[in-house]
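Example S7 (structure tokens).
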């Protein structure tokens, strides 16, 4: 409790103010909301339990739920446009509770409450005068979700892998050839993969499975050679294998934990949900790390920046991840000639996503954070409750690099189900609604690629074909 600067007494005082403000407004609260004394007694019970254990016991959680129900009822019932004083004390109370209670179950209750009142919350966020105190709660929750809390030694896991990428990308051609795999298993493919019908020279990819050198069964590898190929490690960089495996295993572990949370949340929201992702993700061997080295973009001759010397999505075009969960490391920038790590010289370079309002926005993953993206299969099996986000990677503009040739490095890990997993919506969901979520003109529509009853393998095949067609030059209308 000491490191956040708030104490249980601060929460007691906030609850007193909350009760007093609610009484002053003569709000109509539901039966059983309780009195100011009830709020205090409940908080005393929660604080006492939290002082002995991070995770609250069921009885204390019930008390916390009652406090949150009270706050939710106040937020929803006040409703008037001049109710900022009420909102302020509600969010102040939540912020202080959020800082003090560190267990996952308390965190989930806060997030649930925020979802229940999200319309109010969205309106508040658009008001400058309320931003400061609402932001405190948002950053409190974000802080609790950082990998510091759940991925020990995160930076020690991903930095060595990213640092080795420059050496890997510049191995002699003969060594790189040995890493090539006809099934795209494990290789540094520079110009070997294709974008539409053109070889992709923008980046090099080294694929590995962190969970097993020979994942799945012999039959799996024969039937789905693209999904679970054997690893090929470069003999020139012996330390790459243990570092990649340690990083990928940690990413898989975090995603498996997240999948359990997805099951929990979905069980509450959609009664017909039956994807059972927790055990599926935990047991899967379809786990593909991709160490990416984005070569410095070549400046287009005679093209000024305004004319697009580096295209909007020059390093990786706009796309959705097709599978379930993609864990992401922060990125790193290196001088391609020397391998020295350099700060990102171009504020617009790196990962961009389409926000829910349809705009492209940059995303900077903090150096101590792991990010996780939702893939399209997860969107389908959750009935659209979770939405895949279109994203791309923008190259460094040569005019920003001071003459240096700057490359970008990152290492996503794609954590998916077995290819035979059925990708189907929960019963009773509407196909139109599932497909409409997160629709963007920047990526081929999901509805053109996913048919009910398709397996994950079928869906990926259809997606690869559609993206191939999508990236071919479009015929110019006559
Ligand atoms: Fe992606």
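Recovered sequence:
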């Amino acid at each position: 409790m000491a490191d956040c600067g708030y104490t249980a007494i601060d929460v007691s005082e906030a609850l007193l103010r909350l009760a007093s403000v609610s009484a002053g407004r003569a709000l109509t609260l539901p039966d059983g909301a309780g009195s100011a004394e009830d709020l205090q007694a409940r908080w005393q019970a929660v604080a006492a339990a939290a002082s002995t254990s991070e995770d609250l016991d069921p009885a204390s959680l019930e008390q916390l739920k009652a406090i949150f129900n009270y706050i939710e009822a106040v937020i929803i019932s006040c409703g008037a446009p001049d109710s900022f004083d009420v909102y302020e004390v509600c969010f102040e109370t939540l912020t202080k509770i959020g800082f003090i209670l560190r267990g996952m179950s308390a965190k989930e209750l806060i997030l649930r409450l925020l979802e229940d009142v999200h319309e109010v919350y969205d309106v508040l966020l658009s008001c400058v005068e309320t931003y400061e105190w609402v932001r405190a709660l948002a950053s409190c929750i974000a802080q609790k979700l950082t990998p510091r809390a759940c991925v020990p030694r995160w930076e020690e896991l991903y930095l060595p892998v990213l640092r080795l990428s420059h050496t890997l990308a510049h191995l002699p051609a003969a060594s790189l050839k040995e890493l090539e795999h006809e099934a795209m298993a494990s290789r540094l493919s520079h110009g070997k993969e294709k974008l539409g019908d053109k070889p992709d020279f923008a980046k090099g990819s080294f694929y590995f499975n962190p969970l097993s050198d020979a994942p799945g069964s012999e039959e799996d590898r024969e039937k789905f050679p693209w999904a679970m190929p054997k690893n090929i490690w470069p003999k020139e960089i012996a330390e790459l294998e243990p570092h990649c495996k340690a990083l990928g295993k940690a990413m898989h572990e975090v995603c498996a934990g997240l999948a359990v949370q997805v099951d929990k949340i979905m069980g509450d929201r959609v009664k017909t949900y039956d994807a059972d992702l927790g055990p599926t993700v935990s047991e899967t061997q379809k786990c593909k790390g991709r160490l990416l080295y984005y070569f410095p973009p070549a400046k287009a001759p005679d093209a000024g920046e305004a004319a697009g010397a580096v295209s909007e999505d020059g390093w990786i075009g706009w796309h959705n991840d097709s599978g379930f969960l993609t864990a992401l490391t922060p990125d790193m920038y290196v001088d391609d000639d020397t391998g020295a790590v350099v700060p990102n010289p171009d504020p617009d370079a790196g990962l961009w996503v389409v926000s829910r309002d349809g705009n492209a926005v940059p995303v900077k993953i903090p150096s101590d954070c792991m990010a996780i993206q939702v893939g399209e299969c997860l969107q389908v099996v959750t009935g659209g409750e979770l939405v895949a986000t279109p994203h791309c990677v923008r190259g460094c503009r040569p005019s920003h690099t001071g003459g240096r040739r700057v490359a970008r490095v990152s290492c996503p890990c794609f954590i998916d189900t077995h290819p035979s997993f059925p990708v189907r919506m929960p019963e009773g969901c509407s196909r139109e609604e599932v497909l409409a979520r997160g629709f963007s003109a920047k990526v081929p529509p999901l509805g053109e690629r996913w048919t009910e009853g398709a397996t994950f393998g079928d869906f990926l095949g259809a997606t690869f074909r559609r993206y191939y067609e999508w990236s071919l030059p479009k015929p110019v209308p006559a």
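Notes on this example. The longest strand covers residues 287-294.
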